[in-house]
């Protein structure tokens, strides 16, 4: 006789037996070993209205499993829903009072947690077997139960199959959001592409702006909630395009689906569902779209391109979505070429340093005081490239350091050469990018260039652009202090073009202010700009530092600045940046002037 009640009441730890490998704090553990070591057994549920059948089956199954019993469908559903135990397998009779087996199968199939529990149907009718398999039963066992070993073997096989399936699906999913993880996502995209090259496909990259800040302000739990929500909305929308999604990194999501015309509405509804009532917890989702993917390119490239579009709208509050276009494509190929070519350009000296003179204008006649080193790229295929094309690119990927070190060395060598040739010292300013500033070897690098060329620190001046001041004010102040202690002269470049200038001037000591050329450009157009110029000159007077006005192109501008006490002028009025040979003319003129 089987002791059903006793069995039911025995408290066996409710471990999710269906997962063979489970993630714990210590890593992945093998549940089979864990079970053996801890004397734990899987639990199965026998549903049959006839006591004798329950007893016979129970006797067989008891050898390997914990067994629970239900006498009809309703009782079984109550047990399954109670969550008291986790069942590895259900053995189900079809003909029962109250609720029959078909209904149980239907109910289980409709329930997200129960639909993965495998069911073996017990029946003596062949027709019923077929329809129950259609309803999702994993297998069937025919009555009467006269081959216990066969029953046990079938149960074991079905449990193993279902556990394997659940391991696979847990390994391919991102635990937090339930979307695919990177490797499975790419694999599935490739599979779909293999079988369906008929439909055009689109890919999207979605990202939450400043998500790290949201996490810091509202905590990780709240951050996780947002990520789950985004994934859920995305999943819903993906369903409409027969697509699949993935969480690729912390707050970056990939979308792959059938082609659609526009994604503005999709993004708007994602945004709307994410924005709860609490204004302070609003997040902004941005997206990059690459439509009608080019099937001759790598799948990974599609997403790189969508990401490039997505990066276009980073921090741009006027738009949240950008499409990858052929322009952007050409630009990215161009950038790729420049990145590939930089080393060779340095080796071959295709990077040429031009010099633009700075003239002192407060005397009766202007005097050459110094020059700024400005790089040009004489590309073997693309011709002359201006720094506006490659400096921001190299600043964004760190290559700027290599370029700058090269320019500093070239400029120092030039100062040395002129010194030897003309017996005068023309100090040259070099541009120092914000990435150079945070390089711990910056001072050493500069010192070694000076030593190599036998120059003193005043002969190579350093222009630091204003945007660098905003980024890491404290770090910059320290670096500038140290450089000044070593005798370097610091010029604040593009003063007035950003937000940081005034504030920075209270904490940082500089030697020269370079007024942004926008002021000069607008000076004659409106009173406000002229007032700004006067203001900058006043600030410099207060700080007792000279001002260089950049971008001076004509006599009127020069006179306006001279009258207001501006010390130095750099601009097309005197000269465009020119190669060193051409610059020598200015040196010779200056020497002649001083000999008069
Ligand atoms: P910047 O340092 O503010 O250099 C001044 C820019 O203004 C130069 O542009 C110069 O040609 C231009 N300019 C000078 N006078 C006039 C004028 O009268 N009218 C007009 N319209 N423009 C004038 P360029 O050479 O194209 O350089 C642009 C920027 O690229 C530079 O701005 C600097 O930030 C960066 N750059 C140039 N060379 C280097 C370098 O070797 N290293 C780094 N890190 N940046 C560099
Ligand atoms: Mg400059
Ligand atoms: Mg400038």
Total number of strands: 21
Kindly state the mean pLDDT as a whole number? 86
The tally of helices reads 24
Helix content: 40-55%
Strand order of the largest sheet: 13-14-16-17-18-19-20-21
Bound molecules: ligand C2E, magnesium ion
N- to C-terminal distance: 126 Å
Q: State Rg.
A: 37 Å
Q: Globular, elongated, flat, extended or rod-shaped: what is the shape? A: elongated
Which regions have little confidence, pLDDT < 50, spanning 5+ residues? 1-31
- The amount of beta strand, in percent, is 15-25%
> What class would the helix/strand composition place it in?
alpha/beta
Described by strand count, sense and barrel closure, the largest sheet is:
8 strands, mixed, barrel
What does this structure look like?
- The structure is a single chain.
- By secondary structure, this protein is of the alpha/beta class.
- Helices cover about 50% and strands about 20% of the residues.
- It has an eight-stranded mixed barrel with strand order 13-14-16-17-18-19-20-21, surrounded by five helices.
- The structure holds ligand C2E and magnesium ion (MG) (2 copies).
- Ligand C2E binds next to strand 14, helix 14, helix 15, strand 17 and strand 18.
């Amino acid at each position: 006789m089987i002791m059903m009640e006793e069995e039911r009441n025995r408290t066996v730890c409710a471990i999710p037996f269906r997962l063979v490998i489970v993630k714990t704090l210590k890593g992945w553990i093998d549940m089979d070993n864990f079970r053996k070591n801890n004397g734990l057994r899987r639990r199965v549920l026998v549903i049959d209205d006839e006591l004798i059948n329950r007893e016979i089956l129970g006797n067989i199954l008891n050898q390997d499993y914990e067994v629970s019993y239900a006498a009809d469908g309703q009782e079984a559903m109550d047990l399954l829903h109670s969550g008291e135990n986790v069942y590895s397998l259900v053995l189900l009779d079809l003909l029962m009072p109250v609720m029959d087996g078909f209904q149980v199968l239907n109910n289980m199939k409709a329930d997200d947690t129960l639909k993965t529990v495998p069911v073996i149907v017990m029946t003596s009718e062949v027709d019923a077997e077929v329809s129950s398999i259609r309803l999702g039963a994993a297998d069937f066992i025919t009555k009467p139960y006269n081959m216990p070993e066969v029953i046990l073997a079938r149960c074991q096989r079905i449990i193993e199959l279902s556990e394997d399936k659940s391991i696979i699906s847990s390994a391919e999913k991102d635990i937090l959001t339930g979307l695919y993880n990177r490797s499975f996502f790419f694999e599935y995209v490739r599979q779909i592409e293999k079988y369906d090259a008929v439909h055009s496909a689109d890919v999207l990259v979605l990202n939450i702006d400043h998500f790290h800040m949201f996490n810091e302000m509202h905590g990780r739990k709240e951050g996780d909630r947002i990520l789950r929500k985004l994934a859920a909305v995305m999943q819903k929308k993906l369903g409409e395009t027969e697509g699949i999604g993935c969480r690729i990194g912390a707050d970056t999501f990939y979308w792959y689906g059938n082609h659609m015309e526009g994604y503005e509405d999709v993004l708007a509804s994602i945004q709307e569902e994410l924005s709860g009532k609490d204004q302070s917890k609003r997040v902004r989702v941005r997206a990059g779209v690459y439509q009608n993917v080019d099937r001759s390119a790598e799948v990974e490239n599609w997403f790189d391109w969508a990401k490039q579009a997505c990066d276009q709208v980073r921090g741009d509050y006027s738009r949240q979505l950008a499409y990858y276009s052929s322009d952007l494509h050409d630009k990215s190929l161009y950038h790729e070429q420049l990145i590939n070519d930089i080393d060779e350009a340095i080796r071959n000296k295709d990077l040429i340093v031009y010099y633009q003179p700075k003239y002192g204008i407060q005397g009766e006649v202007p005097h050459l005081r110094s020059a700024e080193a400005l790089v040009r790229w004489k590309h073997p295929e693309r011709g002359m490239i201006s720094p506006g094309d490659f400096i921001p690119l190299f600043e964004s990927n760190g290559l700027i350091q290599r370029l700058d070190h090269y320019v500093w060395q070239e400029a120092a060598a030039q100062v040395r050469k002129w010194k030897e040739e003309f017996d005068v010292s023309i100090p040259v300013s070099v541009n120092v990018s914000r990435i150079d500033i945070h390089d711990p070897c910056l001072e050493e690098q500069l010192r070694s260039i000076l030593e190599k060329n036998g120059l003193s620190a005043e002969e190579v001046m350093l222009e630091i652009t204003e945007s660098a001041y905003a980024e890491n004010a404290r770090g910059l102040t320290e670096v500038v202090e140290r450089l000044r202690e070593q005798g370097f002269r610091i010029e604040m470049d593009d003063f007035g073009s950003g937000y940081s200038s005034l504030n920075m001037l209270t904490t940082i000591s500089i030697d020269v202010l370079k007024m942004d050329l926008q002021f000069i450009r607008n000076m004659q157009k409106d009173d406000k700009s002229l007032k700004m110029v006067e203001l900058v000159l006043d600030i410099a007077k207060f700080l007792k530092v000279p001002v260089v006005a950049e971008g001076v192109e004509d006599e009127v501008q020069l006179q306006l600045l001279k009258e207001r006490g501006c010390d130095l002028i750099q601009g097309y009025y005197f000269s465009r940046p020119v190669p060193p040979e051409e610059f020598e003319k200015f040196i010779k003129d200056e020497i002649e002037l001083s000999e008069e």
